[in-house]
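Continuing the series of single-chain predictions for the mutant panel. This is the parent chain; the variants come on the following pages.
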Amino acid sequence: MIACLYGRDFAPFVEPVVRDLCAAAAAVGGEVQPLTIEAALADPARRAAVHRLYALPFDAPGPVGPFIRQLFPRVEIVTSFAAQDLCWDKVASEERLLNRGVPVPETLMSAEPADVYEFVRAHEFVLLKERYACAGQGHVVVWLDDGQLVGDSGSHRYRVELVSSGRRQLCDDRLIYPAPFYAQRLVGDRGARGFTPGQLLRAYVVDNQIAFWTERYRDHYVRPADWIVNVSCGAKYRFVQSVSEEAKKIALRSAEVIGLRIGVVDLIRTGRGDSYVLEVDTDGYHMLIDRQFKVIPEYRSFFDLDHYIAEALLVEPEIPPKRLLGG
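Parent structure:
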């Protein structure tokens, strides 16, 4: 049995994806079964029937690899937990990409507030990011105003106070932001109308093939927080029919470096044509690939990500033929 494994607590937003994956498998004559982690724990016979797992969000009582291996000793994990963890840890994934020659925006990881000030002076607009997050959660655009670090996260403009320890908190118009600091240059173009963020592209990669591309955009950029071009922060999707060969090569190389069979690669392109990888994401026990592009009017079967995933799940590995040596 091929199973989509997920946690019951995540059912409200995971089960629509599970239903689409199961329906897509049935449409091509295969079968993928939904399986909650709770059902697997309660039913040894059912989990013994599973030979391949596609992981969606769930909670594990301890390190996930040993836990799953204990439940499913001989199961094939479609996306390794090491790759899932790497996608979740944005600093670790960016370091991996950079070390393998994949272009990423200039980034700072430091516990020193002075380093952040120097980084902002060098790059003008900077994104303070969460290390473990997705969908733009916790991101703050920061810049200097008369020597004071200020920031915007969508609802307010703050005076940002960087501190060596503690917890993040909002006190009137002050955002107290503790170390460690994960800061990234905001990629875009500066012209007569000011700063414009680069084009944000997403490649949907399945088994070393790019199934299709989307672009995230806004109709208007009113405030600095609008430069965080994420659907959860008010941006929109549209499909992109043509991208450069360079972008395709970077996207496929990024998936290879992270170790993904199935995932998405976010690239940002400037008006000069420079491309940088912002992050690589996947379906997994930490996160879920956003599928809100399914609601836009241009959506059709060609852009059905779950169809491509289901086909990949149903492919059985080739068994090499036996070879007899000697006479």
